[in-house]
Amino acid sequence: MRALVIGIASAALAAAASTNSAPPTFYKDVLPVLQKNCQNCHRPGEAGPMSFMSYESTRPWAKAIKTAVATKKMPPWFADPHYGKFENDRSLSQAEMQTLTAWVDAGAKAGEATDAPKPVEFTDGWGIPKPDVILSMPAAFAIPASGTVDYQYFIVPTNFKEDRYVQYAEARPSNRVLVHHIIAFVREPGSPWLKEAKPGIAFVPSRDSKDRGEGFGGDFLAGYAPGTIPQSLKPGQAKLIKAGSDIVLQIHYTANGKTGTDTSRVALVFAKEKPTQRVLTLASANGEFAIPAGDSNYRVESKIQLQEKATLISFLPHMHLRGKDFEYRAIYPTGETEKLLVVPHYSFSWQLTYNLEKPKVLPAGTVIECTAHFDNSANNAANPDATKVIHFGEQSWDEMMIGFFDVAVDVDTTPMDLLRPKKKATGGD
After folding, report:
1. Rounded Cα–Cα distance for residues 165 and 136 (Å)
2. Quick check: 337 and 362 in contact, CB under 8 A?
3. Which one of 125, 235, 253, 395 counts the least CB within 10 Å of its CB?
């Protein structure tokens, strides 16, 4: 009986202590969460529309933060946790969500500034370390107030006299409002791709030109779109830019009712020594589809086979406004199939990269297969027109089905080594 009384008393004391515990404060409890999950975008000059760098700039948004956290709208992260683990997982833990919610419910108090963690150091104007080289469009491009703007291509010579290996790369517009995306490709010397384009002058390939398309003629170096993170590779890994190469900027401008200009740039940080692995961006894509009008769950598939062993390091699924879900699978030479990434609720507003926590070795002969579903029905609020059959196209009201993925290979391996089918040996008489 005495033990029971003591147990009840202990429980009561613990409950009282819990009830009387101090509510979360900004400096002690909230700021560490913001530093880890939010400040990369929510700081001056970045994509976030408000800054979470200080208490004064964060406090007016307290209720909005609670709502965004409760609905899991922020931070944006769409990977199904049952398939794969990712080192750049932006999702909040349950404890972090509870901390932010409790802070708001308790009045969003500042607390003691002395409790604040050390500020995170960001490179001003960039999401990568201090660039070694910044390559820029030589002149601003004027975007009209209305109408369809074809993809614009800009040739930017590197003038590199020797091969350079890039560990960090970032593409950045000067006008985020009018730039939907940038892709920076490496065009090697002698490549016939965009041979009619003149350096520094906007160029649009003709409609029937083979120069049109995602990545024709060049390796993907870096990209920009809402939610995209800069290219950041591990020590010993790098992208290759051969001596005399050009950077090709493919830029998608979107008119919004007001004229404007843009001068996009690409920043590079070179590897300190020659790497042991070259990183290549590949794509399991399908451009031959016709999504029926009104179809709410149209399936499109794609696949690509690797002819050499490679190490898988990241994914970047890409669709447009009708994109519904996306899945990557590996089909190994043994016949075994493994789900690598499942995005059950795709968002065109956030072009996210998913970096594997543990890179995965893919044996030669592995097939990367993708499945995507599209909602072309009137129930899709983002659908521009549910009455039309939709095909592959460049503009946002068209569609794409591209499963980008990065692999690391031996430093001397080329894309053709990786993708070109091997010739079968023929026996003699």
Report:
1. 19
2. no
3. 235
Contact criterion met (CB below 8 Å) for 92 and 69 = yes
User: 3-class DSSP state for residue 42?
Assistant: coil
Residue 328 has pLDDT above 70, yes or no: yes
Q: Which amino acid is at 223?
A: G
- Give the CA angle between residues 357, 354, 186 to the nearest 5°: 110
Query: Is 284 in contact with 188 (CB distance < 8 Å)?
Result: no
156, HSE (Cβ side, Cα atoms, 13 Å):
26
Residue 331 burial (C-beta neighbours within 10 Å; 0-12, 13-18, 19+): middle
Most confident range (mean pLDDT) of 42-46, 88-92, 175-179, 368-372 is 368-372
Helix, coil or strand: residue 300 = strand
Element spanning 104, H or E: helix 94-105
Pairwise CA distance, residues 365 & 330, whole Å: 10
Statement: residue 162 has pLDDT above 70? yes
Q: How many C-beta atoms lie closer than 10 Å to residue 42's C-beta? A: 22
Tally the residues of the chain.
Answer: 429
Task: Tell me the helix, strand and coil percentages in the chain, rounded to 5.
Answer: 15, 30, 55
What is the pTM for the complete model shown? 0.84
In the block, tokens 């760098």 appear at 53
The CB-side HSE value for 167 (13 A sphere, CA atoms) comes to 17
* C-alpha closest to that of 293 among 209, 384, 389, 206: 389
The encoded tokens of residue 302 equal 């794609």
What is the spatial distance between Cα 356 and Cα 212, in angstroms, rounded to a whole number? 31
Q: Measuring CA to CA, which residue among 401, 356, 352 is closest to residue 77?
A: 352
- Asked if 165 and 275 count as a contact pair (C-beta separation under 8 A), the reply is yes
pLDDT of residue 275: 96
Q: CA 254, CA 390: separation in Å to the nearest integer?
A: 20
Distance CA 11, CA 118 (A): 37
Residue 219: φ, ψ to 5°: -80, 140
pLDDT on residue 37? 87
User: Is 2 in contact with 88 (CB distance < 8 Å)?
Assistant: no
Using the structure block, give the residue that is written with the tokens 């009104």.
294
Among 314, 280, 315, which Cα is nearest to 409's?
280
Q: What is the DSSP letter of 26?
A: I
